[in-house]
Design a protein that fits this description.
Elements: H1 8-16, H2 33-42, E1 46-47, E2 57-65, E3 68-75, H3 77-100, E4 103-108, E5 113-116, H4 118-123, H5 128-131, H6 135-141, H7 144-159, E6 165-172, E7 178-190, E8 196-205, H8 207-227, H9 232-247, E9 252-257, E10 264-270, H10 274-279, E11 282-283, H11 288-291
Amino acid sequence: PVLVDVNRQFAAAIDALGAGGPGAPVRDGAPWLPAVAEAAATGLCVPLDERAAACPLSGYALPVGGELVAVVGRSTGALGEELVALRESQERLALALDGAGLAAWELDLADGALHLDRRTWSGLGYSEEGLGSSAAAWGALTHPDDARSVSEALQACLRGDASVYEAEYRVRSKSGEWRWVLSRGKVTARDAEGHPLRVSGVARDISDRRRAEELLREEHRLALALSGASTLEEALEHCLKTAIHVSGLDAGGIYLADPATGGLGLAHHIGLSESFAAANARYGADSPHAHLVE
């Protein structure tokens, strides 16, 4: 008999017995083979656990038509317990990572392969194929201003100068936005001579935190600047520069409301052409723009 298809759990069981994968012939002496043969010959459902004590599966061989026989059941014995424990451990880890907003990663230093879980590439808007699976591909997404510090932090960990690799850096999402990432890891495998082979760790998106920290710094700088401003024009200049910097724009203007008319007047601008400023110097009380600041 030849294996046609198997699921992950059954594959683990038969691999442990040296039975091979889909398309491979079932080796002689496989403990569940007698049940399969009987089911094929009789057309009846035959329980596996009555065939041999060494069978790692508890279930049935079911004839499904022609020469096809399906084997269904669950793992038993030490192998089954190990598989169940592994699956439960993986599920608990996945839940913990999800709850903490973390994504796991693993870097194979031998070939540069970088294994990222779905939280990483989906959080950045990529597909698994689109993001790639190498350190070079990930490095291409790292902000040029951060690449050196990231490399230095990793090398310090590999040399043993630091017990843990830690870096905060920007990564380009599929939309083109730069997202801040905090990545931590450590060497998890070494060769016989102690040279690092693998680094494993977790990463999280800290864009909101970095944004909040930047806003606090801008607020502090603006407060200091306003405390030293001697004219309204100077105060407006400081306010507008801060707003442009925080928003990521390169031009803007400040309109002041006229309490008597309800209209808006352009009081100060940066980066606007004179023709645009002149054409949009005032908005009447009935203008949609004026209603935005009511």
